């Protein structure tokens, strides 16, 4: 285990490997999405850093982008007399990584004791280490969990948080495509909606500055490259002429694509684009209207006439059709 790689099942996993490269290295197609929008891959694994494990899970935003998280289910270790459930794990990792930081402890509710009732659903101890660009987190549960591979009582998580470094190999391709799309635009149409839009970004609450992407454009650009499907930065000359609650539709003359966006981000509409129109019925709230195109999401009030008109214009101009669905704001 170093800041550049993890030794897993006799092979070295290097940070920067794409999800496809990782799957090829471990020669398996056990790919599933589950509840996550990211790609997930789980394989049996017996140890990490001399800690006994059951499984290892890789997570990444897409098949052709790097794996961003690797996690391990840590097998149960019985603490010694007077030791806490977390003590054996922390002692072992401290000997390798040094003193942890960010320690947090949670008591079990309703006077529960360790491994009683649903205590295992609670994280009772968490701590962190930094190893280069990698944030390592240990979470110890309030009891023993089980799965097909056996019993486990903690999770060990490795997160790659240097998004600028991660995105660097894909930067030129992104800039070239963005420049091509905005080189010569025409037929600009602005649509006013009630709700305001926000720039795409991901927060990292593990960092001292969780909203860094909103303050550092290089970080935000890296996030667009890593986590989105064909989402680009709205050109400055167009952005400066848009308000927070305006949507823009324009033609990219060089690529012959129609594009749609907001003050900060836009996406081209191509034959591969998935277009969704969602009528959100009221449940806990008042409902709403939502359009998804690639990684661009536009939200507005319920029965939004502007979004209905926008979707009809896009269909007429591009020949692409929206998939209409119904959801609930619960």
Give a verbal description of the structure.
The structure is a single chain. Strand 9 and strand 10 form a beta hairpin. The mean pLDDT is 93. The chain has 330 residues and is α+β, with helices and mostly antiparallel strands. The chain is elongated and about 75 Å long. It has seven helices and 20 strands.
Descriptive terms for the model:
alpha+beta; 9-stranded antiparallel β-sheet; 5-stranded antiparallel β-sheet; elongated
Number of domains: 2
End-to-end separation in angstroms reads: 43 Å
Total number of helices: 7
Secondary-structure content class = alpha+beta
The gyration radius over C-alpha positions equals 24 Å
Number of strands: 20
Q: Which descriptor suits the 3D outline?
A: elongated
The SSE order reads EEHEEEEEHEEEEHHEHEHEEEEEEHE
Q: Which parts are unreliable, with pLDDT below 50 for 5 consecutive residues or more?
A: none
For the biggest sheet, the summary is:
9 strands, antiparallel
Layout of helices and strands:
Elements: E1 5-8, E2 11-14, H1 19-26, E3 31-32, E4 39-44, E5 47-48, E6 51-60, E7 69-75, H2 87-97, E8 101-105, E9 123-131, E10 134-147, E11 150-160, H3 163-167, H4 171-182, E12 185-192, H5 217-227, E13 232-233, H6 236-239, E14 246-252, E15 257-261, E16 265-269, E17 275-281, E18 288-293, E19 296-300, H7 305-318, E20 323-328
Parallel strand pairs: 17-20
Antiparallel strand pairs: 1-2, 3-4, 4-6, 5-6, 6-7, 7-11, 8-9, 9-10, 10-11, 12-14, 13-16, 14-15, 15-16, 17-18, 18-19
């Amino acid at each position: 285990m170093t800041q550049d790689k993890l030794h897993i099942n006799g092979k070295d996993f290097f940070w920067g490997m794409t999800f496809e490269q990782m799957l090829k290295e471990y020669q398996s197609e056990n790919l599933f999405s589950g509840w996550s929008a990211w790609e997930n891959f789980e394989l049996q694994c017996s140890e990490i850093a001399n800690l006994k494990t059951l499984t290892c899970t890789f997570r990444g935003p897409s098949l052709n982008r790097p794996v961003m998280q690797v996690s391990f289910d840590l097998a149960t270790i019985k603490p010694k007399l007077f030791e806490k459930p977390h003590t054996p794990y922390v002692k072992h990792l401290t000997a390798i990584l040094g003193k942890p930081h960010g320690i947090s402890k949670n008591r079990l509710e309703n006077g529960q004791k360790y491994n009683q009732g649903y205590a295992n659903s609670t994280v009772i101890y968490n701590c962190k280490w930094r190893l280069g660009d990698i944030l390592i987190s240990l979470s110890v549960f309030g009891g023993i969990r089980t799965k097909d591979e056996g019993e486990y009582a903690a999770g060990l998580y490795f997160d790659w948080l240097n998004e600028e470094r991660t995105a660097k190999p894909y930067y030129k391709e992104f800039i070239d495509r963005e420049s091509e799309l905005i080189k010569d635009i025409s037929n600009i149409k602005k649509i006013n909606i009630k709700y305001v839009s926000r720039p795409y970004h991901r927060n990292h609450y593990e960092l001292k500055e969780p909203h860094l992407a909103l303050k550092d454009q290089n970080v935000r650009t890296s996030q667009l490259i890593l986590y989105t499907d064909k989402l680009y930065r709205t050109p400055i000359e167009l952005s400066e002429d848009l308000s927070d609650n305006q949507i823009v539709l324009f033609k990219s003359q060089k690529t012959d694509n129609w594009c749609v966006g907001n003050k900060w981000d836009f996406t081209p509409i191509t034959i591969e684009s998935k277009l969704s129109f969602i009528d959100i019925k009221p449940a806990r709230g008042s409902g709403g209207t939502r359009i998804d195109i690639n990684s661009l999401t536009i939200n507005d009030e319920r029965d939004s006439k502007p979004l209905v008109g926008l979707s009809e214009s896009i269909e007429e101009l591009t020949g692409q059709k929206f998939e209409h669905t119904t959801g609930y704001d619960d």
